[in-house]
Amino acid sequence: MIDAGIAIERTEVLGLKESDLFEIHDLRSRAADFFTETGDPPPTPESLQADLDDLPDGYSRADEVMYRAYLDDRLTGYAEVLRGFAHERQWIIGILLVDPALRGRAVGRAVVEAVADDARAAGMESVAVGVISTRERSLAFWVREGFTTEVSRRPIVIEGLEAEVVRLERHLAETV
Ligand SMILES: CC(C)(COP(=O)(O)OP(=O)(O)OC[C@H]1O[C@@H](n2cnc3c(N)ncnc32)[C@H](O)[C@@H]1OP(=O)(O)O)[C@@H](O)C(=O)NCCC(=O)NCCS
């Protein structure tokens, strides 16, 4: 069940203000564990900008939406979503991150449900995500959230160790 104290806000990435970006960077700094685990340097304001610009050819910030989750009015989680990726009727979640101090309280679930609801309302067939195969708790989260169709795997090396990025899809007609 999703905590009634969680509020979800959606903002076009082009509509984000400096203060929004600062707030998101602050959350990323609190969740620096994730960047270490995925072999990335510690988050900075510049790396947030770089992540927002790290898009496949043909896409721009105009195709991205930021989802922010507030628990008791504090930014607790966020997701970057790219509309129309892989095929026209799919959105993809590029990153989903929750404050480590507040994990396990269904903030992640609330964000995913908001993305799925919006994608369904926009006529999408599916939502996708790329998950690193060695991150077992993260994988378990996505499978539990209905991302049960594996569509591809590509190799990745993290800190000298071989892993894979597994692309999973959730079909929106199905209920979880
Ligand atoms: C994965 C993540 C977004 C889930 O958010 P959340 O708000 O804790 O999720 P929920 O409360 O809805 O669900 C909890 C489940 O998330 C998963 N989870 C993954 N990592 C976790 C962590 N460090 N702490 C708690 N739960 C975690 C587990 O499956 C957990 O279920 P369990 O308690 O039965 O093991 C969050 O743990 C996170 O930010 N992790 C680091 C970043 C990441 O892996 N993002 C996804 C890849 S882009």
| C-alpha-based Rg, rounded | 15 Å
Bound molecules: coenzyme A
CATH class: Alpha Beta
> Poorly predicted ranges (pLDDT <50, ≥5 residues)?
none
- Biggest sheet, open or closed, and with what strands and sense? 7 strands, mixed
Helix count? 5
CATH superfamily: Gcn5-related N-acetyltransferase (GNAT)
Q: Which topology does CATH recognise? A: Aminopeptidase
Shape: globular
Please describe what this structure looks like.
With 176 residues, the chain is an alpha+beta fold. It has a single domain, classed as Aminopeptidase (3-Layer(aba) Sandwich). 30% of the residues lie in helices and 35% in strands. The protein is built from 5 helices and 7 strands, in the order E-H-H-H-E-E-E-H-E-H-E-E. The chain has helices at 18-30, 32-37, 45-53, 107-121, 136-144, and strands spanning 6-12, 64-71, 74-83, 90-98, 126-132, 149-158, 161-171. The protein has a 7-stranded mixed beta sheet, sandwiched between helices. The two termini are 12 Å apart. The model has no long low-confidence stretch (mean pLDDT 93). Coenzyme A binds next to strand 4, helix 4 and helix 5.
Summarize this entry quickly.
The chain is an alpha+beta fold. It is 30% helix and 35% strand. The site of coenzyme A has 18 residues, from strand 4, helix 4 and helix 5.
Note the main attributes of this structure.
176 residues, Aminopeptidase, seven-stranded mixed β-sheet, 5 helices, 7 strands, binds coenzyme A
What is the topological layout?
Elements lengths: L5 E7 L5 H13 L1 H6 L7 H9 L10 E8 L2 E10 L6 E9 L8 H15 L4 E7 L3 H9 L4 E10 L2 E11 L5
Parallel strand pairs: 4-5
Antiparallel strand pairs: 1-2, 2-3, 3-4, 5-7, 6-7
The structure holds coenzyme A.
